Amino acid sequence: MAEDDDALGEVLARGLRNSGYVVDLVGDGEMALSYTRCYDYAVAVLDWLIPRVSGIDVVRQLRRRGARMPVLMISGKDTPADRVAGLDAGADDYLGKPFDLAELLARLRALQRRPPDLLPARLTVGDLECDPAAREVRIGDCRPALTVIELGILETLMRFSPAVADRRQIAQHVWSNEADTFSSNTIDVHLARLRAKLSGSHARIETVRGVGYRIIAALRGGAGVEPAGPEAAGAERHRGGDAGQRQQRDESGCGGVEHAREDRASH
């Protein structure tokens, strides 16, 4: 999300995070372009009048370089001519200010219902699969019940996999106030809970001391590592497992079908 009004940006980012999105908030167009070169996003929200590079020029540059992510333009410029200009520049939707958060969320859901070839691939590590658009996580045929925070951490680790995500990167992607989170043990507490819920899978979260964390796919025999990350989405998924693995999955919440829910334990 690119929004130069700090107060509005924080309110919108908080609302999106509370709804299960992982949000990167920037205040100008150059930063927005820089972030889109480094990360693959399910959707972008751009204010027209951001400094350095305007939102409409950000959209034009994204389309020129072949970026196909859905873009929602937000702006106080809301005449018919403004909306036409934004859409013709490459935006997929246009929302005039002021607007209600519920409408913003509805429009983002609509953009994420685009045909599959225009959406980011599901993230896969071993038999663990995360669908960022649907906010779903699967281990084989079951869905562990993850909180919003846990889902955000998992998505971040899977996007980096097999590379390491450091603590600051995790904090920036998941929490609105990453400074407080970075200096506390909040990340460690949530990671411990996440590890427990994924204990029945063939994916393993590792601590790289002094650096951060990574998630990798372990072979069935427990030795070695399989290719991991979005590029492994077509790999064979392991759906079997012995009785002990099935018991682990039941204990970690895989027996129930639940969507990610808001985690209030640390707030």
Mean pLDDT: 80
CATH topology of the largest domain: Arc Repressor Mutant, subunit A
Q: For this structure, what is the CATH class of the largest domain?
A: Mainly Alpha
Pattern of helices and strands:
HHEHEHEHEEEHEHHHEEEH
How many DSSP H or I helices? 10
Helix content: 25-40%
What portion of residues belong to β-strands? Answer: 15-25%
Number of domains: 2
Protein structure class: alpha+beta
For the sheet with most strands, the description reads: 4 strands, antiparallel
What is the number of strand segments? 10
Oligomerization: single chain
Distance between the termini: 23 Å
Which CATH architecture of the largest domain?
Orthogonal Bundle
Question: Which word captures the global form?
Answer: globular
Rounded to the nearest angstrom, the radius of gyration is 19 Å
Write the layout of secondary structure elements.
Elements: H1 6-18, H2 29-38, E1 44-47, H3 55-64, E2 71-75, H4 80-89, E3 93-96, H5 101-111, E4 123-125, E5 128-131, E6 136-139, H6 148-160, E7 165-166, H7 167-174, H8 178-182, H9 186-197, E8 203-208, E9 212-218, E10 225-226, H10 243-251
Parallel strand pairs: 1-2, 2-3
Antiparallel strand pairs: 4-5, 5-6, 7-9, 8-9, 9-10
Helix pairs in contact: 2-3, 6-7, 6-9
Walk me through the structure.
- The chain has 267 residues and is an alpha+beta fold.
- It folds into 2 domains: 6-117, Rossmann fold (3-Layer(aba) Sandwich), CATH 3.40.50.2300; 123-251, Arc Repressor Mutant, subunit A (Orthogonal Bundle).
- 38% of the residues lie in helices and 15% in strands.
- Strands 7, 8, 9 and 10 form a 4-stranded antiparallel β-sheet that branches.
- Helix 3 (55-64) links the parallel strand 1 (44-47) and strand 2.
- Helix 6 (148-160) crosses helix 7 (167-174) and helix 6 (148-160) crosses helix 9 (186-197).
- The protein is globular, with a radius of gyration of 19 Å.
- The two termini are 23 Å apart.
- Mean pLDDT is 80; it is low at 221-253 and 255-267.
